[in-house]
Structures are given as C-alpha cells and as structure tokens.
Amino acid sequence: NLHVGGKVVASTEAQDMRLQGMLGHLTALLHEDPKTVLVVGFGAGVTAGTFVTHPGVERIVIAEIEPLIVQGASEYFREANNEVLADPRVEVVFDDARHFLLTTDEKFDVITSDPIHPWMKGAAALYSEEYFALANEHLNEGGVITQWVPLYESSHEAVKSEMATFFKAFPDGTVWGNTYDGGGYDVVMAARRGGIRVDMDAFVRRLLSPDHAMVSRNLRDVGFARTLDLLGTYAASAEDLSVWLEDAEINRDRSLRLMYLAGLGLNNYTADSIYSELLEFSVFPEQIFFGSPGRVQLLRDLIELR
After folding, report:
1. 3-class DSSP state for residue 37?
2. Do 175 and 146 meet the contact criterion of CB atoms below 8 Å apart?
3. Are strands 234-237 and 174-180 parallel, antiparallel or unpaired?
4. Which residues are catalytic?
5. Cα-based angle 79, 83, 87 (whole degrees, multiple of 5)
6. Which residues of 248-263 are buried (b: 16+ CB within 10 A; e: fewer)?
7. Residue closest to 150 by CA, chosen among 241, 33, 294, 262
8. Residues with Cβ < 8 Å from 120, sequence gap 6 or more?
C-alpha cells in the first residue's frame, strides 16, 4: 500500500490492480493506435506501466507533483508497474498537472487521470469543468480520455457531481465499473473525441495478435482473463444517466463544491448502493459495440450478468 498524508492512494490489492489496469488498458484499447500518452498522477506507477506493454506507444508523459511518490513507488512497486521508469519512452514531469497542461503545446492521443479522493485538499481542481475542458484541448483528434471516480468513501451527491461535470466537457462520455466482491467499488469515466465505437471483431484480433501478447498477459494478471472481460465492465452512457444527473452540482473552479460534497461522504459505505442505482438507468449501447452477432450477444450477456 502506498500512503500519502495518511491516505492510501494505490496498492497491489486485487481491486486496485484491476482499476489501475483499466485506466491504462481501456484507455489505450479504445483508441485505434495510440502513440502519445499523458498520465496524471504517478501513484504506484501501475497505470503508467500498463502503457509500456502496448507496442505502438512512442511517448509516455507522467505528470506528478511530488517527487517522493515516484521515488517510493519505483522502489516498492517495481514488479507491479512493469519497471515503468526504466522504459526509455517515459518522461516524468514534476509539476501540477493543470500547470503542465496550461504551459505546454503538446497534444496526446490518450490522457488518463487518477487523482486522490476529491475531499483531499486541492484534489477537486482535477475534477472541475475547467480542468476537463483544458484536458480536452490537449487531445488529438480521435483521442481518448479516462478519469477515475471513487464510489467508496463517497456519496451519491459527490459521484453525481463528478459525472455530470465530466459529461459537460464530454457529452458522449461513458462509465465503466470496477466491482469488488460483486458490488460497486469505483468506476472509470471514458470519452473519445468523435465518440466511442468498438469493432469487437477487430478488438479480439488485436488482443490475440502476437504484438499484443504482453497486453493480454498484463490484462490477465490484473483480473481480465478473457478477451471480452474488459469490455464487459461497461456500465452506462451519459445519455443513459441524464435523468439521474438532473440534480447534480457542476464542480467549477470558482466554487469547487465537490470538495465539500465528497467530504460529507468520507465515512460512508454506500459504494454498492450508488453503483446499483446507476445501473438501473443502463441500456446496452448498440451505437458503441458492433461486430459479429455472436460476439455482440456474448458481450450483452456479460454486461447484463454484472
């Protein structure tokens, strides 16, 4: 477990490895051929380390505000993060992620963000409408962005605020669930410039191709044994959740209301309740997944069995 200021921010627990793997692999695989990557927050380096397994990736930039985190993680999580810091494609930028994005002209094929809980001081600024708009400006055409949202130690109001704010910048966004013992735990929000479309036959061919052998092995290591298991984490779209989010408060820089909503949920244990309520609005997305009828039906069954 990696603690920062007394708060666990990353671990090799099964549910955390699965989530960290999702943030890397889902982001990369929703893009047709990612070359450049931005990872916001190093943590244990596991998310960043998933990208080194993708053969087409040429550049991985990691924005981390605290050098001691990288130092500690590189010592204790080397095996879990695929020795990411030894990869020549990796550059660590010791800077606040927002400051980095405001001061660079570089754009990326994929951006993934896994900040600490928004009730920690300063973290809500990485969940604001302005931050998501800034990140959107630094995505290449067809680029994919993912964002972690905790359901544990949170509340319905905080989660709704996080999702509604993300969907303001990415109206065609989606939600993908990471469960624990069959119940809700946390989720990944994902969007693609131009909308997410997954050719399932091409997706399977990609994972079974020899150049993606490391990707498939890493997916198995974090809990996705079959080729469609990762896609089976799909939970809902922004359109599905529009009614559920009608009363959500948008988190903006000038209020950072999310910090207070999240703080009120600090000792709540309602993750499964939040996730179950969210799933009530879910509809299988015919507009996202397409391919041979057998594979589409198999995925439909996987999603409906959650």
Report:
1. strand
2. no
3. antiparallel
4. 114
5. 165
6. bbebeeeebbbbebbb
7. 262
8. 5, 7
Distance from C-alpha of 84 to C-alpha of 64, rounded to nearest angstrom: 14
82: Cα within 13 Å, side-chain hemisphere: 24
Averaged pLDDT in 10-residue chunks for the chain of 306 residues: 87 94 98 97 96 98 95 92 96 97 98 92 94 98 97 95 98 96 92 97 97 97 94 97 97 96 89 95 96 96 86
CA distance linking residue 127 with residue 133, whole number of Å:
11
Instruction: Determine the 3-state secondary structure of 94 from DSSP.
Output: strand
Q: Which two tokens stand for residue 50?
A: 């998933």
Neighbours of 32 (CB within 10 A): 14
* CA terminus-to-terminus distance, the chain: 28
14-29 and 213-221 helices cross at what angle (nearest 10)? Answer: 150
pTM over 0.70: yes
Residues pairing with 59 in the sheet: 36
Count of residues making up the chain:
306
Question: What span, in angstroms and rounded, lies between the C-alpha atoms of 82 and 51?
Answer: 10
Structure tokens at 110: 């994929």
Query: What crossing angle do the helices spanning 200-208 and 14-29 adopt, rounded to 10°?
Result: 110
Closest CA to 18 of 279, 213, 232: 232
Give the span between the Cα atoms of 229 and 231, in whole angstroms. Answer: 6
